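Why this split exists: single-chain examples teach little about how molecules sit against one another. For that reason, every record in the complexes split bundles all components of an assembly together and asks for one structure covering all of them. Below is a record exactly as it appears in the raw files.
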Amino acid sequence: MSEAPKHDRTHWGVYMLLLLGAALTLVPFLWLVCGAFKRNEDFFTSTFLPRGEGFLGIAWSKLTLDNFRTLLDSSGILRSMLNSVFLSSVTAVLATLVCAAAGFALAKHEFRGRRLITAIVLVAVIVPPTLLLAPGYQLLFKLDMLNSFSGLVIPALAPAFGVYLFRQAASSSVPNELIEAARIDGCGELRVFFTVAMPLLRPMAGAFMLITFLGVWNNFINPQIVLQSESKLPLAVAVSQLRGVYYQDYGLQIAGTLASVVPVLALFLLLQREFISGLTSGAVKE
Amino acid sequence: MKRGAPKFNVAPWVLLAPFLVCFGVFFAVPLVQSVGLSMRQTFGPAHSEFVGAANYRNVLIDPLFWKAVRNTIAFTAGSVLIQLPLALLLAMLLNRPGIRGRAIFRAIFFAPVLVGVVFVAMIFGVIFEKRTGLVNQALHSMIGWDLDFPWLQMYVMPALIIASLWQYLGFNMVYFLGALQNVRKELVEASTLDGAGPWQRFRHVIVPQIRPVASFVVLLSIVGSFQIFELPYVLFNGTAGPDNRGLTVVMYLYQMGFDQGDLGYASAVGWLLAVLLMVFALFQRRLAGESKQGVRA
């Protein structure tokens, strides 16, 4: 009997620490949401919402939608959001197909050169992407692909780590017997990939698609280098330009950031289980 | 199958073709070209002349480069030494038997990972402002902290480390949590029966079992931290901040290659960074390998 209260007390300590951590994690989000509806001058006097006589001691009348109005009117943010949605989804779908096909071939086909290609993929995983910035830019210039979406999308379709992930997934979750059976039934090799392997690779495909979508949505350096036209910029670049050099419009910056972050947070909440397992699956093995 | 048909199997090559083409043109070609490029001085993407090893020599004698290296190392050390122990601690708390709401806590801690680094920079750019920012206001009301504390003017690296702590703590925690959940419970129980205290249990039972994941997380953190660029770049409107306090190696590369237009010089910086990272990775692997043997012995 004396064991239980002690156990409870340590549990309370653990919960307190976890809640503290959770609070510190959430406060910037809360602050972001409050700030998006604040007037610039109220940032000086209130940490979260402006204090006043209203309900809960908050001056609700001081809150405003002006930040979002300015955002929509002046900065072409809607255009940038469409650009981000387009770039992220096209890259995610195509990169998943490209990597799944290659990973499946490396895992399940016997052919000359397989070991060499696998080795190249493994080496490519560890090459820091920053090494390719300068020569990649020069190449896009030579191919006349600067300031175009294709210059952003096509180079992003063949990430080595994606092939590596799908190779792992295919060797562990696509049984050889199933492939053999399909072949005996007269299935062509492409059909084997699409109708036998792809359904079994779906968990990895879903996770990889999400990771890629998120990566492109949040990518800054590549669009910053490749794109020049204002009308082509994705959110990451467009929103970063809301930061002023001399005068800071806090509300506007925060509203733009909120508008960029909320869609991916929503996507994650819908699909979080798949996402986390996908993120860690590459690491835990090996 | 027809007898005497060629052994060559087309199917895998069809499946590999899109990858090989993309990878070849946009990864292998620029990677190989970057070697030659790093020995040329370029004026924008179109014009260049051969300068041999001069780029590398000029990088290595540029005090600005070394300032960038020092800043980057400070950031990396701060990130790894503060973030990873905290991430492990959180994971161990969450992994205690009978904790309720584990999935909710995990989702909360993980949420900032989804916020792209540009947006983290936007958020913390405002949070670290002198009079209007959350950090100074909150600390002021709690402990009478100076409202004019100059985070973004003087204490750039601590500010970057805090922002990045917020962003990546949950990411690292998820890895540690996964590793802890795979720790064999029999061993933990057996050690408890043998009279091992909490620290001994941690040191001799849990640490050896999570070592592979832990060393992966350390490597990932080092490699990631070393390539920090967007956070200071966006915080300081495309500059390196006051007195270059936010200058990092990748920002130095960016400034040389894209602000000043010398892609050759930038390639040389890129190779130096790549070599530095390889050395780190090898060193870290050896360190992990040695201590593993130490535990076994």
